[in-house]
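FAQ: What does the model actually see?

It sees only this:
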Amino acid sequence: MSECRHFLVSGRVQGVFFRASARARAVELGLTGWVANRPDGRVEGLACGPPAALDDFQAWLWEGPEAARVTGVECGPAPDATAPPEFTIR
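And it is asked to produce this:
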């Protein structure tokens, strides 16, 4: 069983390799999707895969790379999303 989740991460998450680290972690977990910087300073993304792997990824979002300072993670189901073939940085 596979699902997709949309996420928004707040804090010091741009300019600290958050997107590259998120992609690496997602690939490690076998997830597909995308991650992108938003103009408001947050990082946004979509992750698709098995629920247990998505739970692990969501927990990782609270940590991020060493230089990041995460203050909030909003994550919810994206039932209408189509799972992309790989995990990309936008």
